[in-house]
Amino acid sequence: MDTTLDPPELDPGTDIGHVHLKVADLDRALAFYRDVLGFELTGRLGDQAAFLSAGGYHHHIGLNTWESRGGSPPPRRATGLYHVAIRYPTRAALARALRALLERHYPLEGASDHGVSEAIYLQDPDGNGIELYTDRPRETWPKADDGSYAMVVEALDLDDLLSAADAG
């Protein structure tokens, strides 16, 4: 790989369309993404794969057992996916997701205020890291002296977040 070349220009409209995860048990994974997080099942290939979305898109999340049926999560000190970040459109929507997790006694691993966003961390049943977050308005994002974003990792006040659940 030649790293001496200038990076290619990336269209600013580029985004990540979906994530496809290997899971050990398709029904167990569906129970999490559909019944705990609220994604809609948009398609299924028997007991091998399922596709889920928010808002009628063909799929944001793909799940499959093609190489992983009955498998175990990868070891924590291995390379691979750190987490999948699911962005909620509003603070109220994130608060409702948090409330649903708490009502279902789903374990949280952490919650952070990053200055630019508020985030909740957990794992799916296969040990995949999940971040549920919402961005703050871009004009409020903290900046460093050099103009870059000054993200932080501070404790997120979950009670204050939950108070936004019934707004908007």
Brief rundown of the structure:
This protein is of the alpha+beta class and 168 residues long.
Whole-number tally of structural domains = 2
- Number of DSSP-assigned strands: 9
Q: Count the helices. How many?
A: 3
Poorly predicted sequence stretches spanning 5 or more consecutive residues: none
Q: If you consult CATH, what is the topology of the largest domain?
A: 2,3-Dihydroxybiphenyl 1,2-Dioxygenase, domain 1
Kindly estimate the percentage of residues that lie in beta strands according to DSSP.
Answer: 25-35%
- The mean pLDDT is 94
Tertiary shape? globular
Helical coverage, percent range: 10-25%
N- to C-terminal distance: 49 Å
What is the CATH superfamily classification of the largest domain?
A: 2,3-Dihydroxybiphenyl 1,2-Dioxygenase, domain 1
Element order, helices and strands? EHEEEEHEEEEH
Strand order of the largest sheet: 5-8-7-6-9
Describe this protein with a few key phrases.
168 residues, alpha+beta, 2,3-Dihydroxybiphenyl 1,2-Dioxygenase, domain 1, 2 domains, four-stranded mixed beta sheet, 3 helices, 9 strands
Give a description of the structure.
The chain is α+β, with helices and mostly antiparallel strands. It folds into two domains: 18-69, Roll (2,3-Dihydroxybiphenyl 1,2-Dioxygenase, domain 1); 83-168, 2,3-Dihydroxybiphenyl 1,2-Dioxygenase, domain 1 (Roll), CATH 3.10.180. 17% of the residues lie in helices and 26% in strands. The protein is built from three helices and nine strands, in the order E-H-E-E-E-E-H-E-E-E-E-H. The protein has helices spanning 26-36, 91-103, 158-162; strands at residues 19-22, 40-45, 49-53, 61-64, 84-87, 110-113, 117-123, 129-135, 154-155. The strands form two sheets. A five-stranded mixed sheet has the order 5-8-7-6-9, with helices on one face. Strand 6 and strand 7 (117-123) form a beta hairpin. The radius of gyration is 18 Å and the shape is globular. The termini are far apart. The model has no long low-confidence stretch (mean pLDDT 94).
